[in-house]
Amino acid sequence: MPGQSRDSLRRFYLQCWSRFQEGVPLSPLEQQVAQVITEHPEYHHWLREETLEREFPPEQGENNPFLHMGLHLGLREQVATDRPAGIRAIYLLLQQKHAPHEAEHRMLECLAEALWQAQRDQRAPDEQAYLEQLQRLTD
Fold this sequence. Notes:
Elements lengths: L5 H17 L5 H11 L26 H17 L5 H11 L2 H22 L5 H10 L3
């Protein structure tokens, strides 16, 4: 994704959504972003220039739509590349019990937890613990 700052990432979401709505040809990455946005109509009102600076404090119970959609993109990349090894099999098992989007939502909770713990402890995410947590979803 272009740039790694919060502002540049949010602007990229806006650009992808705008181009999608205009029917402009999209790059593969833009297509992925537009697909995730399409699957989340509850976030469409946040995809405006006026709302880009908005904070979503979790301590106030707010869900950050940009973070949520970014987690979907990250998870889809993990499944596509099967990294960490075994995540694709877990996703396929979950799809036997749940619709694909619901399966992703269940897995997103584990991904968010793994990333939060890594950030809190200032270390790389523990892939083994992450996989174990995902595996418990299939039991």
